[in-house]
Structure formats: structure tokens, C-alpha cells
Amino acid sequence: MSDGVGAEPADAEPRSASGERHTELLTDAILGARREFTSYEIAAAADVPVYRARRFWRALGLANPEEGAAEFTAADGDALRRLLLLISDGIVDESRALHITRSLGGSTARVARAFVEAMLDPLPPDADGAERTFAVGTEELIRALSDMESLLVYSWRRQVTAALPVLQRRGPRSSIAVGFADLVSFTHLSRQLSDRELTSLVTRFEERAGNLITAYGGRIVKSIGDEIFFAADSPSVAATIAHRIAENVKRRRVPGIRIGIEYGPVITHGGDLFGDTVNLASRLTAMAAPNQIVVGPSMMVALATVAGFEIHPLPVTDVKGFGSMTPGVLKACGR
């Protein structure tokens, strides 16, 4: 028997149960319908084996629901049928469809998390250890969904039009300039700063570096907290971007930065870039001193006739996986 100390009143609902039901209701409101179908029922409606339906579900980055759980709406079945129609009509094969689905799931997952974090603004636990609560935002989130969906479609179409000329100019292994911009001493900073301060630092870095990359004609391949991977069709554009980022960091409340760039052939796959050129650019970034831009041999040759920059060769260096080479430090003329 319990002595009653710390016990919930008999008519009180445990906080966790209340929170779970709130999440369930919120989920149905976001999905726009009550979840009433199992994965077997959704697969049967689309006339495909359940394992095949689950393959696309997992490709979206979503965990399989418990066996027999009613976790799906009619919209899930409609999405599956549309995807299968692309395959049956010969527009894409199943492998490409899965690849596109993975890319879509990964991209929208990040957008969704950022949206929910911004809208719900979670509060820290109470002094007595109560669960995290949400200050405001649930109603605002529901109201904002429609507008955000329109914005998502708008951004999708704009990004597709932006990607077309890039792919038309390049073959599967065309040469471009790729670079990495890394915050200096990020591991140390992550131990010294509060969560809020660290988030603010990363946000400032991503916003400022990202704005400069796109403003000068480059594109962000991916961003991982303290590092931004970018690309540009020409070495001069990549050099300008790197110089502007480094100059901006010096003037802002952002710690030092290291940048490494190389020019050469890359493999394009799923919106990402791979290959020796990318790997070397990453190695060069690790070699750079704080607030320094290090470029590889091919980038040095490509910039030899470009006005506005000068390159100071470094000593011969043994680069892991690439052997001995002579990289250089990139500076704007007169700096």
C-alpha cells in the first residue's frame, strides 16, 4: 500500500497521460483526419504488398508503427498511390523513387523540426521536475500549417528551377569548386556556452555564411551545425565567397573560422557531392589556421589568372589519402 506521499489525487490524470492524449489530438489535427487504417489496409488499398509500402514509409525517415496499429489516414494511401503511379508510368524506376523519397524525407524532416521548435518554444522543466511544457504556440501552429504548406510548395518549385541550369551545365563528373567553412574551437565552445548561447552562435553563423554563399552565386550543399559545405561553378566565385565569409566573421560576434577549397571533378548524387575533390577540400579545411583560407593545387592553378586574389604557397605537406602536395593560403590583394 502507498503511504500517500507524493501521490496524485484519485481523480487527477497523470501528467504523462494527459500530455500523450494532447499529442494524439494535435497529431490528428495536423494530419487533417483521424488515423484509422493499419499499414496492411493502406497497402491493400494501393494494391501492393505491405513490405513494399513500408519500404517507402521508411525511406521518408518514419519508423514503422506497431503491428496492427491504426496510424494511417486516407492521405497516406493517396500519397503511396501517387508514388507508385510515377513508377508504373515509367517516369522513374523504384530505385530512383526510393532515392527521391529519402531526400524528400530528410529535407522536410529538418524543416518540420525547425518549424515546430520555433512555434512551440519549449520551456525547461519545473523546479519540481515536471515534464517540459509548451508556453504558447499550439493554436498558432495549427493556423500556420496552411500558409507553411503553400510556402513549402513555393520553395520546392523555386529550388527545382534553380537546380535545372546547374545540372544542364554539368555532366555527372564536371569540375566545380567546393569548400568547407568550419567554426574554430566549436567543441570547446559547446562546453563553455549555455544551450541558448550555442544555438544563437550556430544560427548566426548559418545565417550569415548562408546569405553570403547565395548572394555571390554559390549554393549550400549541406550545413551541419558548426560546418557549412558549399559549392560554386567557378573558382573565382568560390574564392570571393570564402573571402567574404572570413571578412564577415572578423566583424561579427562569431569566433574564428577555417575554410578549405579545391577545384575539380565531383560526383553529384541526391543533391549531395562526393569524390576526391570534396575529400581534399575537407582535409584542407582541417589544415587551415583560424581565419585562414587554404586552397588546393587545382584551385591555385585555376586562380592564377584571376584578378583580385593572391596565393601564398605553404610548405610541402603530406595530406592523408593524397600524398605530398603544396597547398596555398588565399588572400585578397593588398590584404
Automatic annotation (TrEMBL):
GO biological process entries: cyclic nucleotide biosynthetic process; intracellular signal transduction
One GO MF term on file is:
adenylate cyclase activity
The EC code for this enzyme is 4.6.1.1
Q: Where is the composition biased (Basic and acidic residues)?
A: 12-21
Q: Which UniProt keywords apply?
A: Lyase
InterPro entries named in the record: A/G_cyclase, Adenylyl/Guanylyl_Cyclase_3/4, Nucleotide_cyclase
Domain named Guanylate cyclase is located at 177-285
Residue ranges of the region described as Disordered: 1-21
Which family does the UniProt entry place this protein in?
A: Belongs to the adenylyl cyclase class-3 family.
Protein known as: Adenylate/guanylate cyclase catalytic domain protein
